[in-house]
Please model this.
Amino acid sequence: MTRLRKVLLAFSLLFVFLLTGISNVVPPAHADYTPFDPAVLGKEIDDFLGAGATGYLVWQYSGSRSAPFGNDQYSFFQDVDPGPAICAMLKTKAGQYPDKFVGVNMWDAGLHVGELPSHFSWLKNNCGVKVVRVFAKVGDASLMAGVLGAAQGAGIQVIIAIGDYSNGGGGVPQGAGIDWYQSGYQGEYKSFAKSILSATGGNSALYGYELANEPHCGGNLAALPAYKAWGQDIGSMLKSGSPRVGYGQMASQDATRCDSPRTPEKDFTQTNSASAISITSAHYYTADEKASAMAALAQSKAIENLFILVKLVSLEDYREEQVPLPRCIFFPELMIKKHRHLKSKWQQTIRSLAGHNSHSDR
Model:
């Protein structure tokens, strides 16, 4: 065999291997889905709910960014292992903690209102989901009302995050700073928040509001007074639509400030002590971020005027329900969200090199 033929044969064999091998590892339609051990998930839910969190939400993407929703169905790939086992674990934990909730994050649900009834029913009946978190920036006020309509039919509740600090949207510029917290929010953002409030306030399927997805001060502690004042202003307005209002903080990194629970100043305690704030939250990926979330939970429990009603159990870094609270009894709540998505080594490397200080919740 000539050298050229040997080279061609080698390349041919490699090509066949790649076609057969890779296709058997990750089905193309599910390439963005990251399976995880249901037992590990159950242990993490136990860690937080057992420590006093009111709810635990699991992040679930709607699909690949090039083909959103179509390849995921917001059902943990009910026809692909370990999807059914994950749902079974969530349902087990929902039954184990009847006064708590487990749920999922469906950030772009507003784009798929017509498909939500079947997905909500699947999540409620097969996964024990009682609460779903969505982003108001995806769509408009009428679409958020549509999301709540679908939730009513399935018997679940919805947390609406109005703006999006991490990615920008809903009237919040990505990485908003002190000037925005001082006065910039009074324009587009506040108008948008009012429209969401008008369309959704008082709805029985509304679990509560978050001012934004993962808002913080970008490392500038001097912005804390303005940040807290923003929370008080918008929170007071939103409380006319729901007694459960929170910032939507990730509370998992010391460098972000204003949401950081492990700093000497205890930023998390300071900002969540605002009287208009009744929900706290924490988002985590890593073991260190989980430790920070636990610190946030401890501080949340220590703030007497921070409470949440436990309505229908669901999940993600949140807690509460719409049943009346016993008089003179407060229930500090922390909703814990565990993001589950595909993070390749190169993505992690880029994040570390860039010093990325927030999660890209999309």
Notes: The chain is about 40% helix and 10% strand.
